[in-house]
Design brief:
single chain; alpha/beta; two-stranded antiparallel sheet; 15 helices; five-stranded mixed sheet; 284 residues
Protein backbone atom coordinates (compact mmCIF):
# COMPACT_ATOMS: atom_id res chain seq x y z
CA UNK A 1 0.00 0.00 0.00
CA UNK A 2 1.80 3.11 -1.15
CA UNK A 3 1.17 6.50 0.34
CA UNK A 4 -1.24 8.49 -1.76
CA UNK A 5 -3.43 11.54 -1.37
CA UNK A 6 -7.05 10.47 -1.84
CA UNK A 7 -8.73 13.10 -3.97
CA UNK A 8 -11.73 10.97 -4.89
CA UNK A 9 -15.13 12.60 -4.38
CA UNK A 10 -16.83 11.72 -1.08
CA UNK A 11 -18.82 8.48 -0.98
CA UNK A 12 -22.56 8.48 -0.25
CA UNK A 13 -21.76 7.47 3.35
CA UNK A 14 -19.34 10.36 3.76
CA UNK A 15 -21.80 12.82 2.28
CA UNK A 16 -24.32 11.63 4.86
CA UNK A 17 -21.77 12.35 7.63
CA UNK A 18 -21.22 15.79 6.06
CA UNK A 19 -24.98 16.40 6.04
CA UNK A 20 -25.36 15.43 9.69
CA UNK A 21 -22.20 17.06 11.07
CA UNK A 22 -21.53 19.95 8.68
CA UNK A 23 -25.03 20.85 7.36
CA UNK A 24 -23.77 19.96 3.86
CA UNK A 25 -26.33 19.51 1.10
CA UNK A 26 -25.94 20.43 -2.59
CA UNK A 27 -28.14 23.52 -2.04
CA UNK A 28 -26.37 24.71 1.11
CA UNK A 29 -23.00 24.08 -0.54
CA UNK A 30 -23.82 26.06 -3.70
CA UNK A 31 -25.27 29.01 -1.76
CA UNK A 32 -22.33 29.10 0.69
CA UNK A 33 -19.74 29.00 -2.11
CA UNK A 34 -21.45 31.90 -3.90
CA UNK A 35 -21.70 33.93 -0.69
CA UNK A 36 -18.10 33.26 0.38
CA UNK A 37 -16.87 34.25 -3.09
CA UNK A 38 -18.70 37.57 -2.65
CA UNK A 39 -17.27 38.14 0.83
CA UNK A 40 -13.79 37.40 -0.47
CA UNK A 41 -14.18 39.84 -3.37
CA UNK A 42 -15.28 42.50 -0.87
CA UNK A 43 -12.30 41.87 1.44
CA UNK A 44 -9.82 44.21 -0.19
CA UNK A 45 -6.83 43.07 1.87
CA UNK A 46 -7.24 39.29 1.34
CA UNK A 47 -6.30 37.07 -1.57
CA UNK A 48 -7.42 33.43 -1.68
CA UNK A 49 -7.96 31.27 -4.77
CA UNK A 50 -11.73 31.26 -5.24
CA UNK A 51 -12.49 28.12 -7.25
CA UNK A 52 -15.19 25.93 -5.69
CA UNK A 53 -12.79 23.25 -4.46
CA UNK A 54 -10.57 25.74 -2.67
CA UNK A 55 -13.48 27.53 -0.99
CA UNK A 56 -14.90 24.21 0.22
CA UNK A 57 -11.65 23.65 2.16
CA UNK A 58 -12.71 26.56 4.40
CA UNK A 59 -16.47 25.99 4.30
CA UNK A 60 -16.49 22.38 5.54
CA UNK A 61 -14.74 23.05 8.87
CA UNK A 62 -17.00 26.09 9.45
CA UNK A 63 -20.20 24.12 8.72
CA UNK A 64 -20.92 26.11 5.56
CA UNK A 65 -21.36 29.45 7.33
CA UNK A 66 -19.61 31.88 4.93
CA UNK A 67 -19.00 34.53 7.64
CA UNK A 68 -17.19 31.91 9.76
CA UNK A 69 -15.24 30.70 6.72
CA UNK A 70 -13.92 34.17 5.92
CA UNK A 71 -12.98 34.61 9.58
CA UNK A 72 -10.98 31.36 9.35
CA UNK A 73 -9.34 32.61 6.14
CA UNK A 74 -8.39 35.82 7.94
CA UNK A 75 -6.92 33.77 10.81
CA UNK A 76 -4.91 31.72 8.29
CA UNK A 77 -3.61 34.95 6.72
CA UNK A 78 -2.76 36.48 10.13
CA UNK A 79 -0.92 33.35 11.21
CA UNK A 80 1.08 33.16 8.00
CA UNK A 81 2.02 36.83 8.33
CA UNK A 82 3.01 36.44 12.01
CA UNK A 83 5.32 33.53 11.14
CA UNK A 84 6.35 34.60 7.65
CA UNK A 85 10.06 34.11 8.39
CA UNK A 86 9.39 30.37 8.72
CA UNK A 87 6.35 29.85 6.48
CA UNK A 88 6.50 32.26 3.55
CA UNK A 89 6.60 30.40 0.21
CA UNK A 90 7.53 27.20 2.05
CA UNK A 91 7.70 24.18 -0.29
CA UNK A 92 8.31 20.47 0.37
CA UNK A 93 11.73 20.67 -1.28
CA UNK A 94 12.80 23.21 1.40
CA UNK A 95 12.17 20.54 4.04
CA UNK A 96 13.41 17.53 2.09
CA UNK A 97 16.59 16.90 4.11
CA UNK A 98 14.80 17.45 7.42
CA UNK A 99 12.03 15.02 6.47
CA UNK A 100 14.23 12.31 5.00
CA UNK A 101 16.82 12.36 7.80
CA UNK A 102 14.44 12.70 10.76
CA UNK A 103 11.52 10.37 11.25
CA UNK A 104 9.63 12.71 13.55
CA UNK A 105 6.37 13.27 11.66
CA UNK A 106 4.66 10.24 10.11
CA UNK A 107 1.36 10.01 8.30
CA UNK A 108 -0.23 6.57 8.64
CA UNK A 109 -1.35 4.89 5.42
CA UNK A 110 -4.60 3.70 6.94
CA UNK A 111 -7.36 5.83 8.50
CA UNK A 112 -9.04 5.15 11.81
CA UNK A 113 -12.43 3.44 12.15
CA UNK A 114 -14.18 6.78 11.63
CA UNK A 115 -12.27 7.53 8.42
CA UNK A 116 -10.03 10.13 10.02
CA UNK A 117 -6.45 10.73 8.88
CA UNK A 118 -3.89 9.74 11.51
CA UNK A 119 -0.61 11.52 12.11
CA UNK A 120 2.14 10.40 14.47
CA UNK A 121 4.54 12.97 15.91
CA UNK A 122 7.50 11.52 17.80
CA UNK A 123 8.80 14.03 20.30
CA UNK A 124 10.67 11.61 22.59
CA UNK A 125 14.07 10.04 21.94
CA UNK A 126 13.28 9.75 18.20
CA UNK A 127 13.59 13.55 18.02
CA UNK A 128 17.08 15.04 18.11
CA UNK A 129 16.68 18.83 18.40
CA UNK A 130 20.28 19.28 17.19
CA UNK A 131 19.39 17.50 13.96
CA UNK A 132 15.97 19.10 13.45
CA UNK A 133 14.77 22.15 15.35
CA UNK A 134 11.30 22.59 16.81
CA UNK A 135 10.72 25.25 14.12
CA UNK A 136 11.41 22.74 11.36
CA UNK A 137 9.15 20.11 12.97
CA UNK A 138 6.39 22.73 12.94
CA UNK A 139 7.13 23.64 9.31
CA UNK A 140 6.62 19.96 8.39
CA UNK A 141 3.28 19.82 10.25
CA UNK A 142 2.22 23.05 8.54
CA UNK A 143 3.02 21.54 5.13
CA UNK A 144 1.28 18.23 5.93
CA UNK A 145 -1.99 20.09 6.67
CA UNK A 146 -1.96 21.49 3.12
CA UNK A 147 -1.90 17.93 1.79
CA UNK A 148 -4.59 16.83 4.25
CA UNK A 149 -7.06 19.43 2.99
CA UNK A 150 -6.65 18.14 -0.57
CA UNK A 151 -8.62 15.08 0.55
CA UNK A 152 -12.41 15.52 0.62
CA UNK A 153 -12.59 12.56 3.00
CA UNK A 154 -10.26 14.33 5.46
CA UNK A 155 -12.10 17.64 5.07
CA UNK A 156 -15.23 15.82 6.25
CA UNK A 157 -13.92 13.27 8.76
CA UNK A 158 -11.02 15.29 10.16
CA UNK A 159 -7.70 14.19 11.62
CA UNK A 160 -6.28 12.58 14.74
CA UNK A 161 -2.76 13.22 16.04
CA UNK A 162 -0.84 10.78 18.22
CA UNK A 163 2.02 12.46 20.07
CA UNK A 164 4.53 9.80 21.06
CA UNK A 165 6.81 10.87 23.91
CA UNK A 166 8.64 7.57 24.40
CA UNK A 167 12.13 8.17 25.79
CA UNK A 168 11.59 11.90 26.34
CA UNK A 169 14.64 13.41 28.07
CA UNK A 170 16.07 16.80 28.99
CA UNK A 171 17.68 16.99 25.54
CA UNK A 172 14.21 17.24 23.97
CA UNK A 173 12.79 19.52 26.66
CA UNK A 174 15.66 21.96 26.13
CA UNK A 175 14.71 22.00 22.43
CA UNK A 176 11.18 23.22 23.25
CA UNK A 177 10.01 26.75 24.02
CA UNK A 178 6.81 28.46 25.22
CA UNK A 179 6.70 30.51 22.00
CA UNK A 180 6.74 27.34 19.87
CA UNK A 181 4.04 25.77 22.05
CA UNK A 182 1.92 28.88 21.57
CA UNK A 183 2.53 28.83 17.81
CA UNK A 184 1.53 25.16 17.54
CA UNK A 185 -1.63 25.58 19.60
CA UNK A 186 -2.68 28.80 17.86
CA UNK A 187 -2.30 26.96 14.57
CA UNK A 188 -4.33 23.90 15.64
CA UNK A 189 -7.08 25.92 17.28
CA UNK A 190 -7.44 28.97 15.05
CA UNK A 191 -5.43 28.88 11.85
CA UNK A 192 -5.96 25.60 10.01
CA UNK A 193 -8.94 24.34 8.03
CA UNK A 194 -8.21 20.78 9.22
CA UNK A 195 -10.85 19.49 11.65
CA UNK A 196 -8.75 18.31 14.60
CA UNK A 197 -10.85 15.58 16.17
CA UNK A 198 -8.45 14.30 18.82
CA UNK A 199 -4.90 14.63 20.15
CA UNK A 200 -3.60 11.55 21.94
CA UNK A 201 -0.45 11.63 24.09
CA UNK A 202 1.17 8.22 24.49
CA UNK A 203 4.20 6.76 26.32
CA UNK A 204 4.75 10.05 28.11
CA UNK A 205 7.15 9.76 31.09
CA UNK A 206 7.05 11.89 34.27
CA UNK A 207 9.18 14.53 32.51
CA UNK A 208 6.20 15.16 30.23
CA UNK A 209 4.78 17.39 32.97
CA UNK A 210 7.37 19.96 31.91
CA UNK A 211 6.10 19.81 28.32
CA UNK A 212 2.49 20.09 29.45
CA UNK A 213 3.43 23.16 31.52
CA UNK A 214 4.56 24.84 28.28
CA UNK A 215 1.37 23.90 26.43
CA UNK A 216 -1.35 24.25 29.04
CA UNK A 217 -1.69 28.07 29.07
CA UNK A 218 -2.57 28.06 25.35
CA UNK A 219 -5.12 25.22 25.31
CA UNK A 220 -8.74 26.34 24.97
CA UNK A 221 -11.71 24.35 26.27
CA UNK A 222 -12.74 22.81 22.94
CA UNK A 223 -9.29 21.35 22.30
CA UNK A 224 -8.83 20.37 25.95
CA UNK A 225 -11.94 18.18 25.65
CA UNK A 226 -10.28 16.42 22.70
CA UNK A 227 -6.92 15.78 24.37
CA UNK A 228 -6.26 12.40 25.95
CA UNK A 229 -3.31 11.19 28.01
CA UNK A 230 -2.66 7.45 27.89
CA UNK A 231 0.87 6.87 29.19
CA UNK A 232 1.83 3.28 28.40
CA UNK A 233 -1.74 1.99 28.57
CA UNK A 234 -2.60 1.35 24.93
CA UNK A 235 -6.00 -0.04 25.93
CA UNK A 236 -6.95 3.53 26.84
CA UNK A 237 -5.92 4.63 23.34
CA UNK A 238 -7.98 1.77 21.86
CA UNK A 239 -11.14 3.20 23.42
CA UNK A 240 -10.70 5.99 20.87
CA UNK A 241 -8.82 4.38 17.99
CA UNK A 242 -9.63 0.80 17.01
CA UNK A 243 -6.59 -1.52 17.34
CA UNK A 244 -7.38 -2.79 13.82
CA UNK A 245 -6.30 0.65 12.54
CA UNK A 246 -3.09 0.87 14.57
CA UNK A 247 0.40 -0.58 14.14
CA UNK A 248 1.80 -2.93 16.79
CA UNK A 249 3.88 0.00 18.16
CA UNK A 250 0.63 1.25 19.69
CA UNK A 251 -0.86 -2.11 20.66
CA UNK A 252 -2.60 -2.47 17.31
CA UNK A 253 -3.05 -5.53 15.13
CA UNK A 254 -1.26 -4.04 12.10
CA UNK A 255 2.47 -4.75 11.62
CA UNK A 256 5.07 -2.62 13.37
CA UNK A 257 5.62 0.58 11.39
CA UNK A 258 8.16 -0.10 8.66
CA UNK A 259 7.73 3.25 6.95
CA UNK A 260 8.03 6.85 8.00
CA UNK A 261 8.54 10.36 6.76
CA UNK A 262 11.09 9.52 4.05
CA UNK A 263 8.57 7.12 2.47
CA UNK A 264 5.86 9.74 2.20
CA UNK A 265 8.14 12.64 1.25
CA UNK A 266 7.76 11.90 -2.52
CA UNK A 267 3.98 12.33 -2.15
CA UNK A 268 4.54 15.79 -0.70
CA UNK A 269 6.83 16.74 -3.55
CA UNK A 270 4.38 15.36 -6.10
CA UNK A 271 1.73 17.83 -4.91
CA UNK A 272 4.01 20.89 -4.95
CA UNK A 273 1.66 22.66 -7.39
CA UNK A 274 -1.20 22.57 -4.92
CA UNK A 275 1.08 23.74 -2.11
CA UNK A 276 2.20 26.66 -4.30
CA UNK A 277 -1.45 27.50 -4.86
CA UNK A 278 -2.14 27.35 -1.11
CA UNK A 279 0.91 29.57 -0.56
CA UNK A 280 -0.70 32.35 -2.61
CA UNK A 281 -3.45 32.62 0.02
CA UNK A 282 -3.11 35.36 2.61
CA UNK A 283 -2.89 39.14 2.79
CA UNK A 284 -2.33 40.91 -0.50
Amino acid sequence: MSFEIDQSPPSAELLEVARQELRETPEVRAAAIAELRKLLAAASDLYFPDDDDFLIIFLRPTHFYPESAIKLMRNVAEFKKAHSDLLKDLLPVDLKEDIINNNVVSVLKQRDQKGRRMLIVKMGEAWDPKSISEDKVFAILYTVQKLAVMEPSTQISGAVVIYDFEGLGMKQIKGMSPSAAKRLLTFIQEATPVRMKAVHFVKEPVLFNMVWTLMKPFVKEKLKSRMFFHGDDMKKLHKHVDPGCLPANYGGTLPVLDYGSKEWYPTMEKHTDFIKKFNTAGFK
